[in-house]
Amino acid sequence: MSDMNIVCLDLEGVLVPEIWIAFADAVGIPELRRTTRDEPDYDKLMKYRINILKEHGLGLKEIQATIATIDPIPGAKEFLDELRALTQVVIISDTFTQFATPLMKKLGMPTIFCNTLEVGENGEITGYRMRVEKSKLSTVKALQSIGFETIAAGDSYNDLGMILNSKAGFLFKSTDKIKADYPQLQAFDEYDEFLEAIKKAL
C-alpha cells in the first residue's frame, strides 16, 4: 500500500442524497429534480435552476432549510471513517460551500473541495463561482502533479473526467445508462464491496 494515494470521492449520490432532488420534492417543483446525471453541461443546469428559483421566489434560506433535514446515505459515515483510517480522502464536489457545510458535520468533517454560490442580501441566488474549470478533473490532475496517485469514484457525468484519469476509478450508485456507456469501469451499489475494491487499488 502506497502512502502516496489519495481517494477522491463525489458527494451527492455517493455519500449524501442529491440535494436538489430533496429540495424539489420539499417545495413541489419537479423541474428542479434535474441533476448532473441528466444534464452533462453543468453551466446550463445551474442557469436553469437559478431561473426556476427566481420564478418561484425561492432562495438560499429555503434550500438550507431542506439541507438541515438531510442525513447521509445509511452506511456512508461508517464507510468514510473506515476509508479515512486507511488513506487520505478528499471529497470533490460541484456543490456549494453554502450547501455542503452542514452535511460535512454529519460526515465527521472530511475535507471537501467545492464551489461557491453568489447570494444577494435578500438571500436570492444570483449566480455561482466555480473554484476552477472542470473542477473534478483539474483537482485530480493537480494532486497528481504534486506526487499523489489518485483513486476516484462518483455516480454522474461530471465525475467521469476524474474517474477515467485516475490510477483506479469506480462508479458508485450510478445510472444504468452511465454503467452501459462505460463498461470498463467497475460499478458498485454497496459500501462494503466498494470499500474492498478501493483497498485492492491502494
What can you see in these coordinates?
By secondary structure, the protein is of the alpha/beta class. It is 43% helix and 21% strand. The chain has 2 domains: 130 residues, HAD superfamily/HAD-like (Rossmann fold, 3-Layer(aba) Sandwich), CATH 3.40.50; 49 residues, thrh gene product, domain 2. The protein has a 7-stranded mixed β-sheet with strand order 4-3-2-1-5-6-7, sandwiched between helices. Strand 5, helix 7 and strand 6 form a beta-alpha-beta unit. Helix 3 packs parallel to helix 5 and helix 4 runs parallel beside helix 9. The model has no long low-confidence stretch (mean pLDDT 96).
Task: Write a compact overview of the structure shown.
The protein has 202 residues and is α/β, with parallel strands linked by helices. The chain has helices spanning 19-27, 42-56, 60-67, 76-86, 97-106, 135-145, 160-164, 176-181, 191-201; strands at residues 5-9, 88-96, 111-119, 125-129, 149-154, 168-172, 186-188. It has a seven-stranded mixed β-sheet, with helices on both faces.
